[in-house]
């Protein structure tokens, strides 16, 4: 935090969490402005804008509104005057960073002869489960290589969240990450080429939110919270987030809780930091990553093709389920294929299986699908729940079998992770 940031933080109010996100472009810093319930967010926005503050987004729920604002540190507003004009403001905070969750090794192009079923697709046992239609998966990532011969070009739309066009129409600079995630969920099957995804018929609805630019940089938690809202507004049933960061965000958690209550299933990477220290009691010394570690979100661990935990996969009391996340073959840029590792790669296996199973049981709530995935997971590590794999490796056919015996109708289950 530079001197100007410190000055602003001090001026804006006491009790400010001193967790700084890395400085973004130039001298702009993101802050969160919390308003009392019932406040007129538009009026506060007008005052802030009149002082040269860029109001990026307004979040509103029963607890009041939060404004995400960019402040140009080279042109600080008159903070004393600003504060006097904003009695509705109950507090301020600094926003925190979110990044994609692949292991940062160079992606290696793999020449695929004919069509290959990646090991992870076999491991989650999805090939025998037909897609029942009517589900939409939102992928918050680096975009989607629209026109890749092994990815659908229909039933996919998206939006630019300031990082560039969602469809890679800005050329080859787009990071491979989002396209790799999309291929695991929905690469086309039976087309004689490339790979095959969890839902391979080209008939899954996809909504792509390009949140990250081509440079592998970070976004703010408020950007991610906004992206989640946009996924829900587009009618998404599942939100797949191969991303995260070390610090929790109350704003982000509130948005996740609200969407979870509205019926959206949220899935995120457990993180690639391994874990430090002991795990007793209840993971107090473990490294949590967010948004995966909110109760409203399924946290996904990464396992390899021997069903051993990836060395990087974070293990905590919030890990809920595991997916294939080492040497995962999928689609990459420019019509190519490549292998990548990370809890980023494990996450879309779970998102895809959730959509696949749910499409056959649309009478189920998001909580009930989540519960079915947990109950039917292939148990790994110590018997029952464990901090490494959660309830175990996600299993599509077993989840179908579970729901055949345990129908959703009239049954209520909780939304916690275990
Ligand atoms: Ca294919
Ligand atoms: Ca276990």
UniProtKB/TrEMBL annotation:
UniProt-recorded Gene Ontology molecular function terms: metal ion binding; serine-type endopeptidase activity
One GO-annotated biological process of the protein: proteolysis
PROSITE patterns: SUBTILASE (PS51892), SUBTILASE_HIS (PS00137), SUBTILASE_SER (PS00138)
Keywords per UniProt: Hydrolase, Metal-binding, Protease, Serine protease, Signal
Every Peptidase S8/S53 domain range: 133-392
Residues annotated as the enzyme's active site: 141, 177, 344
Signal peptide (from-to): 1-25
GO cellular component terms listed in the entry, alphabetical order: extracellular space
PANTHER family (UniProt xref): CEREVISIN-RELATED, PEPTIDASE S8
Similarity section: Belongs to the peptidase S8 family.
Name of the protein this chain belongs to: Peptidase S8/S53 subtilisin kexin sedolisin
The organism of origin for this protein: Marilutibacter maris
